[in-house]
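Appendix B. Worked example

We walk through a single record from start to finish. Start with the input: the chain for Crp/Fnr family transcriptional regulator, Methyloradius palustris, length 235.
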Amino acid sequence: MSNRRSPDKNRFLAKLNTATYEQLLPDLELVAFIRDGDLYHHTGVIDYIYFPVTSIVAMVNVLQDGTSPEVAAIGNDGLIGTNLLLGVQSPTTKFIVQSAGFGYRIKADLIKKLFDSDIEFRDLTLRYVHLLMSQSIQIAACNRYHSIEQQLCRFLLSCLDRWNSNRISLTHQRVADLLGVRRASVSEASAKLADAAYIKYHRGCVTILDRKGLENEVCECYQVVKSETDTLLKE
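Next comes the structure step. The output line below is what the pipeline stores for this chain.
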């Protein structure tokens, strides 16, 4: 197995104590996350808990008109399916693969048993659930009060933090859908960032050329979520 795909490249799994990590290891199954795939579409229930490693999954809220803005993103910083651990059997949002890659899954009942029996694991998981809630709150505020350019910078930097490369496969339409804005607005904002030599966009792929430049342009929302994440998952 390639080292970059090993389970401990997921920061949540890496945060577990050695005994718990080794307990889970035999039951972790390497899976491919296919772009645009809906993780719970086929069953409609949370039958597996997922740990992305080289993939990003968007947690989206589908509205009546079909739009599906992102309310949180999960990559190598976390796990998917935490609703089950709070007593909810079916996902209340959709989990759509934003960036294809690999990760691990484990049967949900095994994680549920561990959650019920292991105080340390339960505490870490609940703190991660709080982190997801904080991320959702910050995204909602950002989308309401900050410019498209700032939102795009936040989005791209957040992807970098959960990704293993400075090249991200994303179309302007996909970004617009996740931000809940018009495609033309994303194209205009991207052009400004490209003119500043912060990014390069070519055929559905964004390459980050100057991370520091994006950090100088982004609103405070990015750092709020990043600081909470780093505090929780620091080694």
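Two observations about the output. The chain has two domains: 3-141, 147-218. The CA atoms of residues 171 and 203 lie 8 Å apart.
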